[in-house]
Amino acid sequence: MKASIILLPGDGIGPEIVAQARLVLENVASQFGHEFGFASHPIGGIAIDEFGDPLPQATIDACKTSDAIMLGAVGGPKWDDPSAKTRPEAGLLKIRKELGLFANLRPIRLFAELVDASPLKREIIEGTDILFLRELTGGIYFGESGRSGSGKDEAAFQSMIYSVGEVERIVRLAAKAAQGRDGRLTSVDKANVLEPSRLWRQTAARVMADEFPDVKYDVVLVDAMAMHLINRPKDFDVVVTGNMFGDILTDAASMLPGSLGMLPSASLGDGGPGLYEPIHGSAPDIAGKGIANPLATILAAAMMLRHSLNLNAEAEAIEAAVQQVLADGLRTADIARGGEATSTEAMGAAVVQRLAGAQ
Ligand code: NAI
Ligand code: MG
């Protein structure tokens, strides 16, 4: 197949890790007989420096006509001046909005080879493989807010609103993801207290019964979920939840595997291009040193193949190659635990080599 892929390397380690993900994608294309076209565009601090805008219109236009987008990271101390008119992160929020990316997918997968990197006990986390879907463009973060009164009577409010349509679209996406995995979906809400959660629960139950009778479906309250995640993470397959609950739960869950440098994410909308990126930031403390872990971005490339290009075998080939380089003992500094560390480029090259060997 032919696909046009936009690369938004961004700042800090962004260009270093995106370069490795690109090499992996190019290798997949040649192995499996696809034609991937790549074009790089500026976003974040580098775009501010060059164009005075963290998301130039040309970048937006290129993204909108592409099949998928790969982002490195944005931000850094150079652009942290609080008096600055615009910040790199504004580019990130705007691109999500421009593309209507309402679902954030975050797989929490623990590679057996890295089980000792987790702060949790081996027997609790071994085998953990959860896919979170967090609603990204609605809920309390986007609700009306305000203040009234003064002194001790000063009060603030922020409203949480979800519509049936917003719930339906993310639940459908989550259920489809479950069909491609272990066939189980858990919806997390606070329906014992919150009205939007009751609407969420009602809507999700209807969608699941009408459209996905083959998916095993259950609901868990968010406070209980916080406990289960730490206590029995391997019991979950796909988890779908609202914006705020997802924000908190995914950050907690990202600590299960113990390393930021291993975790990819995807943001998807209705049919248009998806945006794929590592969950970590631009890591200014190690930028330019050639030691960043490229595996989160490479795993994000696998998500791109699976979710935007419908290339499942290709996605699995990348994930298997990553698993193999870990089994070979290769570790970048963040996962080396004091042992010998390999460079960003050597790690990328090892994945490419394993991919080539797989065919
Ligand atoms: P960070 O994720 O960039 O770094 C946290 C720590 O993890 C650092 O010690 C870093 O060296 C390490 N680290 C992160 N990714 C790594 C990798 N691939 N390999 C090895 N080590 C890695 O978070 P921090 O330091 O809070 O933020 C730095 C900048 O990144 C800030 O300007 C922040 O706003 C921005 N940021 C951007 C994000 C994005 O573009 N999506 C997300 C989070 C932060
Ligand atoms: Mg957060």
UniProtKB/TrEMBL annotation:
Question: What assembly does the database describe for this protein?
Answer: Homodimer.
Keywords per UniProt = Amino-acid biosynthesis, Branched-chain amino acid biosynthesis, Cytoplasm, Leucine biosynthesis, Magnesium, Manganese, Metal-binding, NAD, Oxidoreductase
Cofactor(s) it depends on: Mg(2+); Mn(2+)
Question: What are the protein's GO molecular function terms?
Answer: 3-isopropylmalate dehydrogenase activity; magnesium ion binding; NAD binding
Q: Where does substrate bind?
A: 96, 106, 134, 223
Residues reported in the UniProt entry to bind Mg(2+) = 223, 247, 251
Site (Important for catalysis) location in chain: 141, 190
What Enzyme Commission number(s) does the record list for this chain?
A: 1.1.1.85
GO (cellular component) term, any one? cytosol
> What InterPro entries would the database entry show?
IsoCit/isopropylmalate_DH_CS, IsoPropMal-DH-like_dom, Isopropylmalate_DH
Quote the PROSITE patterns the UniProt record gives. IDH_IMDH
What EC class is this?
oxidoreductase
Main function: Catalyzes the oxidation of 3-carboxy-2-hydroxy-4-methylpentanoate (3-isopropylmalate) to 3-carboxy-4-methyl-2-oxopentanoate. The product decarboxylates to 4-methyl-2 oxopentanoate.
Biological process GO terms, please?
L-leucine biosynthetic process
Q: What is this protein called?
A: 3-isopropylmalate dehydrogenase
Q: Which NCBIfam families match?
A: leuB
Q: Which source organism? A: Stieleria marina
